Task: structure prediction
Amino acid sequence: MNPNDTTPPRGRSRALPVALALAVATCITLLLIAASGGLLFYVLAGVAAVVGLGLLHYLVWGHAMREAPLGAPRGAPLNRPDAWENARQRQDRH
Result:
């Protein structure tokens, strides 16, 4: 082993800090849930529900919005971000 070798170790050395952080976070969360009489559980469940609804909204609407910008006229080229504005200006001239 070369003492000047600074390549980071692989695999196991990264898993240990992550596992310890998760264990500490779990212990603190359970302690706070017990101290609040279960109120924190309902708060966390509410936050998880809002995040879930946001994800569902993105999957249903947001992903489709990436394909066609809002207000873009039909047939407008979508290869440039301002292409729909140019197409609208051409339509206004006529």
